[in-house]
Amino acid sequence: QVQLVESGGGLVQAGGSLRLSCAASGGRFSTYVMGWFRQPPGKEREFVAGISWSGLNTYYADSVKGRFTISRDNAKTTLYLQMNSLKSEDTAVYYCAANRIGRSTDTSPSRYDYWGQGTQVTVSS
Q: Where does 1-125 show beta strands of DSSP type E?
């Protein structure tokens, strides 16, 4: 199995930027599709972005397209989410997840096998 640990969350003003990291260990990171999800307070967990094992294919939720960038460094077994032009509605707990058999376009949480503990992102208006 894989252990995933998110970091980089915090408080940021609307319009600002944050870069989240997800460090993976204990598995075959370089073979997994990876994704970022988020769960706003009192709401359901939602898909944010996905990336293929090679990093060549990415997919974004419409709500973040053009503002967020997902990337990965397989040598470092680390996943990233660069978040720019942050809005108050981006406030959520952000989770990284690993998908052993899937596509970057998999948006359902049920498609993912391993999850991190989450990191809080709060955007003030």
A: 3-7, 10-13, 18-25, 33-39, 46-51, 58-60, 68-73, 78-83, 92-99, 114-115, 119-124
* Among 18, 67, 57, CA closest to 35: 57
- Dihedral angle at the C-alpha atoms of 89, 93, 96, 101, nearest 10 degrees? -80
- Per the listing, tokens 């870069």 go with 19
Exposed/middle/buried for residue 49 (C-beta within 10 Å: 0-12, 13-18, 19+): buried
Strands 10-13 and 119-124: parallel
Contact (Cβ atoms closer than 8 angstroms) between residue 88 and residue 14: yes
What is the pLDDT averaged over residues 107-121? 96
Tokens of 113: 């096998």
Helix (H/G/I), strand (E/B), else coil: 88: helix
pLDDT tens column, 24-37: 998 888 899 999 99
